[in-house]
Amino acid sequence: MAHTFKPERATVDHVEDEHLPEMPGVPFRLMWHPESWEEKDGVWYPRIKWWRLQSGVNGVKSQAKGGAIQAQAIMEHARGFQVLDPTRTPIIARNEDGQLEESRGYVDKYPAAKGKYIGTVYMTPWDVPEVVGYGQRARVVWKFDAEAFDAWRTMLIAAGIVDLPRQSTLAAIIDVQKRRAERRISEAHDGAPHVQRHVEAQHARVEAMETAAAALVAPEPEPKKRRKTRDRDVSA
Fold first, then answer.
1. Is 32 exposed, middle or buried (0-12, 13-18, 19+ CB in 10 A)?
2. Which of 66, 35, 65 is nearest to 163 (CA)?
3. Tens-of-pLDDT digits for all 236 residues of the chain?
4. Is 196 exposed, middle or buried (0-12, 13-18, 19+ CB in 10 A)?
5. What is the distance between the alpha carbons of residues 212 and 42, in angstroms, rounded to a whole number?
6. What angle do CA 155, 158, 162 make, to 5 degrees?
7. What residues does 131 pair with on adjacent strands?
8. Pick from 117, 58, 128, 137: which is nearest to 93 by CA?
9. What is the SS3 assignment for 128?
10. Are 139 and 31 in contact (CB under 8 A)?
11. Which of 27, 40, 41 is nearest to 105 (CA)?
12. Strand, coil or helix: 203
């Protein structure tokens, strides 16, 4: 009697590559400067600057030597920058459920591989990767969570990690915006509608900056009082 074979459906397990299709990067630090602020939607925020710890860039002599990085941090401090601690600084970012929550540390690490290059990509918690394409054509599109980032910058001020700006600092930034508006006014003599709309937008921006500045400023340092000296009687 012939034996009848029953075929079994073959299955192939799909194995996902845990590496992002991205060139490896270098660690970084985030810094802020007392004189560097920006206004957005009626709110003033400190500008945050990236400092990449790459050998031969930004004065970093060696990634392996912590002393070189510390020396450069001292130089940045001398220029007025304040370096935020990469592991202890509190942050606000989204969790897996998409909700904003507090945690600590602003450096996220992803395993990365691009061609023969394998390593690590260092990004902030507000940079969200999305892989597009497959195989060798795969690439990463980074989406930035501006809402969470702005919430974090607000928290830095509220927590006292970033000092309030002085009135003179914001006034100087507003003055630059005023000069931009004045230049556009001089160009609006032809009455072109698009120029008029731009001028109105510039004026509205200046008003929003001034209103927000009035609510978020630190007191100016009081001038030192000069001691009054009595006139000496040299006639004796």
1. buried
2. 35
3. 554 444 443 443 434 568 999 999 999 999 999 999 999 999 999 999 998 887 655 555 554 455 556 666 777 777 889 999 999 999 999 999 999 999 999 999 999 999 899 999 999 999 999 999 988 889 999 999 999 999 999 999 999 999 999 999 999 999 998 888 777 666 655 566 777 777 788 888 889 999 999 888 666 565 555 554 444 444 44
4. middle
5. 6
6. 85
7. 140
8. 128
9. strand
10. no
11. 27
12. helix
> Distance (Å, rounded) from C-alpha 89 to C-alpha 103?
9
Instruction: Give the number of other CB atoms < 10 A from CB of residue 50.
Output: 10
DSSP per position, 129-198? EEEESSGGG-EEEEEE-HHHHHHHHHHHHHTTSSPPPBHHHHHHHHHHHHHHHHHHHHTGGG--HHHHHH
Which residues on adjacent β-strands are paired with residue 82?
Answer: 32
Q: Given the structure tokens 């450069």, which residue do they identify?
A: 72
Calpha distance 113→79 (Å, rounded): 36
**DSSP character string of 205-220:** HHHHHHHHHHHS-BPP
For the purposes of burial, counting CB atoms within 10 Å of the CB of 43, is it exposed (0-12), middle (13-18) or buried (19 or more)?
Answer: middle
HEC letters along 40-95: ECCEEEEEEEEEECCCCCCCCCCCCCHHHHHHHHHHHHHCCCEEECCCCCEEEEEC
Tokens 């810094």: give the residue. Answer: 31
Lookup: tokens for 157: 């001020």
pTM above 0.85, yes or no: no
